[in-house]
Write a structure and sequence with these properties.
21-stranded mixed barrel; five-stranded mixed sheet
Length: 779
């Protein structure tokens, strides 16, 4: 279901737990609010998509749900703002290896140990070309020493619609339609509906269809269950889980071989095995798999919801008297018939992720020294099978369109959409203590190749292989748990660029001071922890704006031209989609962070972080060249942006007898700006995107509605008012400002409206309480 004038309200039912809306941060009295959240807490929000469990949880993370359609309900996530006008795509990792949101979005919360948001300058520098927009790192559960532990859990919930803006009923629609026609006819009363027709509508004796009520149900169920087994000893440990999820849509249609509601079913399996050999070798074998099935009526979800919004209630009954489906040329897609008479679209997806990791502790050579090797292979495949037909659009026994009743036909692509991802990682590290000094170092090499079926990439087969390599190094020093310094960085490259520009260096530095560990704080009993940290570093983004391999010259087919005299035959032409840019390179981000962590009075904890992100080398169209020459797009690394902000997290926990209670506030304030983007100069300088917020929109400034007094007797606008160039206006139309004072409202009066693509501030207040096994959480 697309998000057209509606909100989705989910009521959740969980054994021994009453949960209202979402959850609160599980913050202990001795902990500062962190940038990670346990999977067991996410489990308490009964939705199938992992991204929809993250609302209001972590500072700096903005979550926006785009759709409530089962199986297509991934929320848009942004970490510390958009950052760049080119893309805000973040990297996703599962158990230390890169993954895709296709796989991550439906990981079961029952198999997740934690979800962490990586966003500070020093940490992101280690990710090189994949760090500029932040990283979401997911760790799955592992076995622990001890006897067999088994867990069986079940969740259920319902989804209902609220705040739907329905079309007017027939009487109100017809009455206002008469007024609209009269307004269009220079205020002369020219009704389309007679008083008798209006009377029949008002009394319920004429067509008056509530398309929402006919097409949708009041609520839809959600089910989820999982079983897990874990245990082991110091030499071998295991965690095995299996889960099932079913999410149903809101459509009023039965499920059979030829009809289906919007349904998403998912079957998951995870096996994580840890072992130790010879006293110095540690290993991990991880397997994660999932099967997904999506079914929906064979009609565009977006089109259906648009039709529900715009189809008047009086156009025709839902069915004709003989049971045939209604429809007209103007309104051809009867909403009820769209979900009941066109068949089924079905998609089957399979995912597999497999990891093998070995770690050798070399204390017999140098105490604290180790090496590690790891390999990961993951793949995805999608097969589509459609059972479809058409139906005749009839009204009063007369066909209204050229559509005819047909039999069901079957189409199957046998799984041609697919990708696979092969990754290698090698690491060497050391950790040691020398009196009050602690030193650690780590060097990590990671290389990956991702192959994508060319059917998913459009023209040519040049986009089918993606190669990436990254060498990361970290050197940490700390003294007496008071002072610490970290030097880190990466040398990161991609096959997206020519030799000589494929690899780039991304250094960083971080320093922290634990003030509460100082001797002069010994008497400050109210202060449990007080810590300041600052970091600065570079990271990059491997942009695909405009396509891949922009340093090479390519051509593609475009258009046709006739060949021959008497019977010309059309031949395909070719064009250059862009002018090669030999020195194309990755986007660069210079990040700076300053944070303060504190725990006060044994129950109050807070974190405040100020951050700055300066972007440069953003890949953009160079309109300064294109506007003058009329040539194809010319992409260059010329864009610049700035993002700054403040994150705040405050948590209070207390206890009174058997009652635990707490309140948490999480907030993020962000400002961003486009410093340069080589845009085409707008007609009005005020409409330029440069110096404005990222994601800004151009438009006209609204200043009220036209009244009857604004018009001459013949219906024309009086001459003393600015004349709009967009077309004729009448009383009740919106009136826009003439910003340049030339008495004409046109493109020269456009300006930037709004404050950008994301909220300047977003946050949440979370209340929680628990008493002997029962808990309440609300946001």
């Amino acid at each position: 279901m697309t998000n057209h004038n509606k909100r989705v309200l989910r009521l959740r039912i969980l054994a021994l737990s009453a949960i209202l809306l979402f959850f609160a941060l599980e913050t202990k009295a001795t902990d500062v609010v962190k940038d990670s959240i346990p999977g067991d807490v996410l489990f308490k929000t009964p939705v199938s998509n992992l991204t929809n469990t993250l609302y209001g949880i972590l500072p700096g993370l903005h979550v926006r749900e785009q759709s409530g359609e089962p199986g297509n309900d991934t929320a848009t996530l942004t970490i510390r703002g958009t950052g760049s006008y080119a893309s805000h795509s973040y990297a996703v990792m599962v158990d230390g290896f890169y993954s895709s949101m296709d796989y991550v979005q439906y990981l079961s919360a029952s198999e997740i140990e934690s979800v962490k948001i990586i966003k500070d300058a020093s940490s992101l520098a280690l990710y090189g070309l994949k760090g500029a927009n932040g990283v979401i790192s997911i760790t799955t559960k592992r076995g622990r020493e001890g006897g067999l532990r088994s867990d069986v859990r079940f969740r259920s919930g319902i989804t209902s619609l609220s705040n739907i803006t329905k079309p007017l009923r027939s009487y109100e629609y017809a009455s206002l339609y008469n007024e609209a026609l009269s307004n269009d006819n220079v205020m002369k009363w020219t009704p389309a509906y007679s008083p008798a027709q209006l009377s029949r509508y008002k009394e319920g004796r004429a067509t008056d269809v509530d398309w929402y009520a006919k097409t949708l149900r009041d609520f839809a169920p959600f089910y989820s269950g999982d079983i897990s087994l874990s245990g082991g000893n110091k030499n071998a440990r295991y965690f095995v889980s299996a889960d099932f999820t079913e999410t149903n849509g809101m459509y009023n249609v039965s499920n059979d071989d030829n009809h289906s509601n919007s349904v998403f079913r998912m079957y998951g399996l995870r096996s994580n095995f840890d072992f130790s050999l010879f006293g110095f070798v540690e290993g991990k074998v991880d397997l994660g798999g999932r099967i997904e099935q999506r079914k929906s009526p064979a009609f565009s979800t977006t089109s259906l919801w648009k039709n529900l919004e715009r189809y008047p209630s009086n156009i025709y009954p839902a069915r004709n008297a003989d049971g045939s489906w209604t429809g007209t040329n103007v309104y051809p897609d009867n909403p009820m018939a769209s979900i009941r008479e066109l068949g089924i679209w079905t998609k089957h997806d399979t995912f597999l992720q497999s990891n093998l990791t070995l770690k050798e502790r070399l204390d017999f050579i140098v105490k604290g020294l180790y090496i590690s090797e790891a390999i990961s292979f993951s793949e995805w495949n999608r097969g589509s099978r459609n059972v479809t037909k058409n139906y005749a659009r009839m009204l009063d026994s007369v066909a209204q369109t050229s559509d005819e009743e047909t039999n069901y036909s079957i189409s199957d692509d046998y799984g041609t959409n697919q990708w696979n991802h092969l990754q290698f990682r090698a690491e060497a590290g050391y950790a040691g203590e020398f009196g009050s000094h602690s030193v650690s170092a780590r060097l990590t090499w990671m290389q990956s190749v991702r192959n994508v079926d060319k059917n998913m990439n459009g023209d040519a087969g040049i986009n089918t292989k993606y190669a990436h390599a990254n060498l990361a190094a970290v050197l940490d020093w700390s003294y007496a748990d008071r002072y610490s310094v970290s030097l880190s960085g990466s040398y990161s490259g991609s096959d997206n660029y020519r030799k000589g520009l494929r690899f780039h260096l991304y250094p960083s530095i971080a320093a922290a001071w634990n003030i509460s560990a100082e001797d002069f704080m010994a008497g400050a009993k109210a202060v449990g922890q007080l810590r300041i940290k600052a970091s600065a570093g570079l990271s990059g983004y491997d942009s695909f704006a405009g396509g891949r391999y922009l340093y090479k010259e390519y051509y593609k087919t475009s258009g046709t031209f006739p060949v021959g005299n008497s019977t010309p035959v059309g031949q395909s032409g070719i064009e250059m989609p862009y002018i090669p840019y030999y020195d194309v390179c990755p986007e660069q981000s210079a990040k700076y962070d300053l944070s303060l962590d504190a725990i006060l009075f044994s129950g109050l904890s807070f974190n405040v972080t100020a951050f700055l992100d300066k972007r440069s080398r953003i890949l953009s169209e160079d309109n300064s060249i294109m506007a003058a020459s009329g040539e194809p797009p010319y992409y260059r690394n010329l864009g610049k942006t700035m993002t700054k902000g403040l994150e705040l997290s405050i948590a209070w926990r207390g206890r009174s007898g058997k009652l635990d209670y707490g309140i948490t506030a999480v907030g993020t304030w962000i400002r961003d700006r486009i410093d340069y983007m080589s845009e085409l100069p707008p007609a009005a300088p005020a409409a330029a995107y440069t110096t404005k917020a990222i994601g800004s929109m151009r438009g006209y400034m609204y200043e009220g509605l036209y009244g009857i007094e604004d018009f001459n007797p013949d219906g024309t606008l009086i001459a003393t008012l600015p004349q709009p160039s967009m077309g004729s206006v009448q009383p009740g139309d919106m009136r826009y400002k003439d910003l340049n004072g030339d008495n004409i409202v046109d493109e020269r009066d456009m300006t930037i409206i709004g404050k950008g693509g994301l909220p300047v501030f977003y946050g949440s207040i979370i209340v929680q309480a628990g008493y002997e096994g029962f808990d309440f959480r609300a946001v």
